[in-house]
């Protein structure tokens, strides 16, 4: 049976010692009352909920899964009660607007609570995650009446939310959706079509479900420009806010999946379902991007959450399991064999897990802080800078954190040897659960195209330069610090490599757009490594500055930074070479001869 303990020590290091979050939140009026004590209280409280309430439902939820019968879906035992407890404690609205029932705390706090919830039970975490996403989208694009009607109920957990984009023939290319919305005399719309793969699309946890559905109006322009967004409640809402008549949106079946089995993934059939337009006609994609940007960071967090719980268990196992003697001589003579943690190869796996996890935690916190600044800073320039960094690095967070998360979970299973492959130990569940994070919310291949195409090349590299400036300033500030030279030199070199590679792709892309597509995935990894190298150097600098280290925390931090630079960063040389191999080798093979 796996165990989980929230990594509060590292969270506090990131928030208080490294980011000095209090100092950044101070100029944001809305967070004037948020001090370190409050942050720590929220973290402690959340860790208790994650460890004691939802973690015990993780393996049982996976084994039991969801069950479908005649349009109804039953979630695994305990899920509904845990959702009730979570909602009643106010967790759903933690970082949401207090005017609509939220608690108004910063996103950076929400991201840490999210990490714990995801580590404890990712499948369960999908339900509150979708509700929060729906509330967030209505908040950004709904009129006052919709906000008042739906958001408080979504945040109190009385109702739940979904995000209905995908159709059988339209996943990445949403411009091809066929769900139709016909106007009705009273200003509402009648929606007909079918959505597939809808997370939390049907379940027994709440009295109503508020679906956000993409559909096309009659005579809509072709492609994504013709998409509109509609609120489609499962039960139509009475004027007094209570659920009324059953609407024509019904669950046809649920999917049998590789992982996150406690999360219901529904086919939804819309037959003249009544819907309410939000965000204006043909403006659906813009509205959905609001939801997707927040959801992309949350999806990236699934890579960290599952990577963290996998690491904790792999570490405990490696200290306990005895096999063989160390090559350099016996380390535990009192035992029949040495614990496997003495073997260099097992340490390689554990340190890879630790370095990617702690890098991801730093990245997610830093990005969440930019989100708080983007939304709340009184200064225009500060808001614009933060917004540019968020736009640039959201696809990197989604793809780099989940690709690494998959590697981390896979390594966790490997540390257990054959026992990792056996269900009872719980390690294979993490591999199965984390895998979807590389696919949904836009596949990682699509994130890579978004990064190089929309975020970097479209504005001539302006946003990338803003990030580059942060790296340059850090290098300049630390260039005279001897203790930092092992980080500063390689970081500066990688910064130049990224700059040079970006220009190369831009030049090649002007002659042949396929060069951009061919480079995209490797380019995103290259940028991801630049981000982590910057964050690891910066964390090492803080850890090195500490004069007291009673429990060895700072020593471990500096050591992990060194491991990152020595073992993981060298991948960037191969990435550069792969990018420069160009598109020809990918595209010239005739489709017909692929199979030979
Ligand atoms: C468990 C689960 C939960 C989900 N939850 C939701 C949900 O709540 N709401 C919702 O609306 N959807 C949901 N989805 C759908 C999910 O977002 C899509 O599966 C995903 O966006 C990919 O679409 P697709 O499956 O149609 O793949 P396709 O779009 O067919 O892609 C297939 C492959 O082709 C690649 N590809 C496609 N186009 C391009 C291109 N232009 N350039 C390069 N490569 C390309 C992709 O990267 C991918 O590797 C869920 C899916 C699953 C499995």
Describe it for me?
The protein is α+β, with helices and mostly antiparallel strands and 596 residues long. The chain has a domain at 443-584. The protein has 19 helices and eleven strands. Strand 4 (180-183) and strand 5 form a beta hairpin. The longest helix is centred in the middle third of the chain and has 37 residues, at 284-320.
- Could you say which structural class the secondary elements and strand pairing correspond to? alpha+beta
What hetero molecules are in the model?
A: flavin-adenine dinucleotide
How large a portion of the residues is in β-strands, by DSSP E?
A: 5-15%
**Through-space gap between termini:** 46 Å
Shape: globular
Sheet of most strands = 7 strands, mixed
Poorly predicted regions are: none
Key features of this structure:
globular; 596 residues; 19 helices; binds flavin-adenine dinucleotide; alpha+beta; 11 strands; two-stranded antiparallel sheet; seven-stranded mixed β-sheet
Topology:
Elements: H1 8-18, H2 21-25, H3 36-54, H4 58-64, E1 67-69, E2 72-74, H5 79-88, H6 107-120, H7 122-141, H8 144-156, E3 159-164, E4 180-183, E5 189-199, E6 208-216, E7 227-233, E8 235-237, E9 243-246, E10 249-254, E11 265-278, H9 284-320, H10 344-376, H11 380-415, H12 427-435, H13 444-457, H14 462-478, H15 485-511, H16 514-544, H17 553-568, H18 571-580, H19 584-587
Bound molecules: flavin-adenine dinucleotide.
Flavin-adenine dinucleotide (FAD) is lined by residues 163-166, 171-172, 197-199, 257, 265, 436, 439-440, 442-443, 445-446, 449.
